[in-house]
Each structure stands twice: as C-alpha cells, then as structure tokens.
Known about the structure:
Elements: E1 3-7, H1 12-23, E2 27-31, H2 40-50, E3 56-59, H3 66-75, E4 80-83, H4 90-95, H5 97-118, E5 122-128, H6 151-170, E6 173-179, E7 182-183, H7 192-202, E8 206-209, E9 215-216, E10 219-220, H8 221-230, E11 237-242, E12 248-249, H9 250-261, E13 267-270, H10 285-291, H11 299-312, H12 314-317
Parallel strand pairs: 1-2, 1-4, 2-3, 4-5, 5-6, 6-11, 7-10, 8-13
Antiparallel strand pairs: 9-12
Helix pairs in contact: 1-2, 1-8, 3-5, 5-6, 7-9, 7-11, 9-11
Amino acid sequence: MPTILVTGCAGFIGWKVSQKLLEKGFHVVGIDNLNHYYDVRLKWHRLENLKRFPSFVFYQVDVENMEALSVVFQVHKFDAVINEAARAGVRSSMEDPFVYMRTNALGTLHLLDLCKRYGVQKFVLASTSSLYAGQSMPFREDLPVNTPISPYAASKKAAEVIAYTYHYLYGIDVTVLRYFTVYGPAGRPDMSVFRFIKWALEGKPIQVFGDGSQKRDFTYIDDIAEGTVRALTPLGYQIINLGGNRPHSLLEVIDLVEKYTGKKVQLQYGDFHKADMQATWADIGKAKDLLGWEPQVSLEEGIRRTVEWFLENWDWLREITV
C-alpha cells in the first residue's frame, strides 16, 4: 500500500486523517512538533490512538526545521504528502503573526521543496474558509480571496500561492482543501464547540462574542477526514471547499449542547471581534464533482457524538483549560 506523510498528525484534523488512512490500509508516517499552543494531553490522546496501528510511524519533527524534515524524506519513500501542520486560530495570530508565517507558509515551502527533491508527486494542503472574508455567499473556490483580514488567513493564502508555484514549475499535483469550521470529538479547546460543551458540563456561563446570531458552516471531523483522503486522487492543481453546506448560528449550537448535556446554560455576551467573520457557507459543488464527497453527519448528530466523547473522557478533560 502507498506510504503517506501526514504532518501535524497529533493535531485535530491531522490525527483523524491519519486514522482514516490507516483504516483504509495505507502506511502513514506522521510528524508533529507537539507544541503547547493548547494542552498537549489532547495531542497525546490522539497519538495513542494512532499508535495502535502497526503501519503507523511517528517522528517529533517541526515543519520549520528543514534539516530534520530532510532526514524523514531520506528514510521513507512517500507517495504523497498531506500537510495538516499549521498554527490555527484567527485571534491568536494577531498576538504572534511571525510564528504563523513560519509554520503555515515557510513550513509549506519546506515540504514542497522536499517533494520536488525526492520525487513526491502528490501534495494535499489544508487551507481555510477564513480566506473568504468579505465575499458573497455561498463561498465558491473561484472568488478573489486577495484581502485576508487576519495574519492566520494571510499565512494560509501564502501557502496556497507557493503550492501553485511548485505545481507550475515542477509538476507537483496539488489539491488545496479549504476547511469550514471543523468540530468533533478530541477537537481543539480554543474552538467554540469544545468550549461550549466544557462550560456547560462545568456549569459555567458560555461566553459568546457578538449576539450569537453569527453563522458557521460547521463540518464534522469524520467528514473532513474522508474528503481529505479522497483528495489524494490526481487533479493537477485544484482548490476545493470541504464544508457542511448548511450554516448554523452559534445559538443553534448552544441549544444542541443544552439538549445533549442536559444542562441549562447562561450566556455572557462580549464584543464581536474585528478579525472574525459574520457568516461562512461553503459551495461544495467541486467536492461533489471531483471527489464524490459530501458531508454525511448532521450538526445535531455531530454534537451528540462530541458530548458523548466528553462524558467518556471527563476524568481528564475537566482539567483542560479553554
């Protein structure tokens, strides 16, 4: 079976993509720097899940470290690279934009150059719906996303552009996936769904920036992983949205959190952040046509599964800071 390099394999999406590949019989080499952007216990929880598979190999390597990356490419012959290694989070990127550019842009450049050097013909790049700020909805891949409103979005745009350059110059087959608000079990603690559920279980007020009417195209993690694996097919150079195709307001999410935790919550409202988007909505026509993909898990079912995971792991999740 093919051998795939998955960067950021201990991260939320990278972990589930690796798991999906392993279940399908692929060999997976995973790398992650295990940084402390959030509690590393979540990353180890995901890694332990992957280490159950005999065809999984892990290296603690940073995509910013070209020398260490080169060693991994020397040891293994890869059929494709899926780059999930990234600094995520719009607001955090305003605090330290430099690390976002180093990881998201320079890290992508390192990987592309190694693909060129070692003859890896397929590259899948995780990108973001944050690029669509200010555009009309539903968001289509051909919209002119030239005005990112956060360093995070700017760093992802830079990664997309350099990926196209390596496709044009060296013939690397590149698929860019723009993800829309991914959530689910073992998610990131800085994301709304994780926070809402944890605060509800703790009996704490839920903090909402704005009035809660802002909408997101929430997409369940298993659906995202399936679409990402399908993106390994040769496509030349394509940008493809992976989204739920049905926006939901934060207040709708909170209602579902109340339903499945059995907790009535209080809301604390704060100011809407300048770098946030009022709404996101993916046009997934290309994903259907090129990948045969569309989401399978509804928001209600996804929230139910996520709450169930919280309850099963509450003995240690209660200590995670959000």
